[in-house]
Amino acid sequence: MTRADALARDVADPLAFARAQFRLPEGTIYLDGNSLGALPCASAPRLAHAITHEWGERLIGSWNDAGEGHGGWVDLPARVGASIARLIGAAADEVIVADSVSVNVFKLAAAALALRPGRRTIVTEAGDFPTDAYVLSGLARLAGATLRVEADPLAALDNDTALLWLTQTHYRTGAVRDLAATTAAAHAAGALTGWDLSHSAGALAVDLNRANADLATGCGYKFLNGGPGAPAFVFVARRHQGAAEQPLSGWFGHAAPFAFEQEFRPAPGIERMLAGTPGILGLRALEAGVATFEGVDMAAAEAKSRALGDFLLALVEQRCPEMTGACPRSARGAQVSLAHAHAYELTQALIARGVVGDFRPPDVLRLGLPALYTRFVDVWDAVDILADVLATEAWRDPRFAVRQAVT
Ligand SMILES: *Cc1c(COP(=O)(O)O)cnc(C)c1O
Questions:
Q1: Any idea which architecture 47-291 has in CATH?
Q2: Dist. CA 391 → ligand 1 center (Å)
Q3: Of 36, 100, 101, best ligand 1 pocket probe by most atoms within 8 Å of the beta carbon
Q4: Which listed residue (366, 376, 378, 400) is catalytic?
């Protein structure tokens, strides 16, 4: 495997066109789009227009009509939700953009308890992305429900389980759960499924409705390229929408927000998952991020990320025997995880050489491989630099051991 092989694969890549939609800094190999998606070229002009024209000139009128065919701000959560729906196998009216993943976990899990009266247990996986279990424990305390955090969550399902809450793609290992099989197992136990798609949406060909999934949420700022702190999305299967009650019953989730009624009446559809006024600038940036998927077949994106990962693992095996694969060979998300006792220092040393990945404790160097802008030659160059950092032990420089707030 040579650098020329990598370049040849880029020439043959049917998704190569998508990279031109992003502004990537010269001299940086960005392998952290699974944490913060790259900046689309369209985002800055789109936001500038939203600020100067929609806000600056049309002012409050933009809530109904932002002009130039851009619709009204008030419909933006549903419109951007509909464009995300295509990427995750949902119908347009089953997805809406709202809040953060953490807040949506709370709303969805509470809705699941309401949808399964008589059942009081939520089951989730130990060692998964922590915010989900943190929020579920807070909800369980408030609702008088039981949270079970299990190494084998499927084995823990019983006739008291209202909800099986899982992340589809594991943030550290990249292991991917089978949506359909897992959902079927939960349904067989009489429980609903709730999926955190943070590392799946925009990375894999997710098909929520084919899996008969019930509830889901996921990040806007990772593979969807929505920008730092972009709002998240929420999915509620149509069959549950009429009965899915969530406790953050704010006015944007009301059937008629501008009727200013005394009593809360939930919107009949997915809008009931909203709470308060959406952040429009964040939504405009997310809209531009999701638009980078136009014309992209998610099966092709998934296949490319897997091929990039296979290429990376093969190169590492050949050139960096000190690193051990900490991710599955198959059923893997758009990332590769490599273990090393000094993974933190290695990550920092790589960043200093222009290869941006991240560190996840205790010992994982995580490299994201978004299909839209990662090239095979980037993978080749990154492994070349990794091999050099290992061979020269450049990572032993004490400045690489200084812990940053965000790793
Ligand atoms: C990134 C991530 C989150 C982030 O949640 P926020 O509330 O948006 O900060 C949640 N869950 C998983 C699995 C993630 O990977």
A1: 3-Layer(aba) Sandwich (3.40)
A2: 35
A3: 101
A4: 366
The one-letter code for the residue type at 142 is L
For the question of residue 196 being annotated catalytic, the response is yes
Identify the active-site residue in 22, 30, 106, 129.
129
Percent of the chain at pLDDT > 90 equals 98
Q: Are 31 and 378 in contact (CB under 8 A)?
A: yes
Give Cβ neighbours of residue 262 (< 8 Å, ≥ 6 apart).
Answer: none
pLDDT in tens, 142-178: 999 999 999 999 999 999 999 999 999 999 999 999 9
Task: Report the nearest atom of ligand 1 relative to the CA of 167.
Answer: 13
CA 101, CA 168: separation in Å to the nearest integer? 14
**pLDDT in the model for residue 1:** 87
Whether the Cβ atoms of residue 376 and residue 311 lie closer than 8 Å to each other:
yes
Alpha-carbon dihedral sign for residues 377, 378, 382, 388: positive
Segments of the chain assigned to CATH 3.90.1150.10: 3-40+297-401
- Give residue 141 CA to ligand 1 midpoint distance, Å: 21
222 is catalytic: yes
- At the fourth CATH level, the homologous superfamily of domain 3-40+297-401 is Aspartate Aminotransferase, domain 1 (3.90.1150.10)
Q: For helices 76-85 and 280-291, what crossing angle results, to 10°?
A: 20
Pair 163, 112: CB distance under 8 Å = yes
Q: Indicate the pTM of the whole model.
A: 0.97
- Quote the ligand 1 centre to 231 CA distance (angstroms): 11
CATH 3.40.640.10 residue window(s) in the chain: 47-291
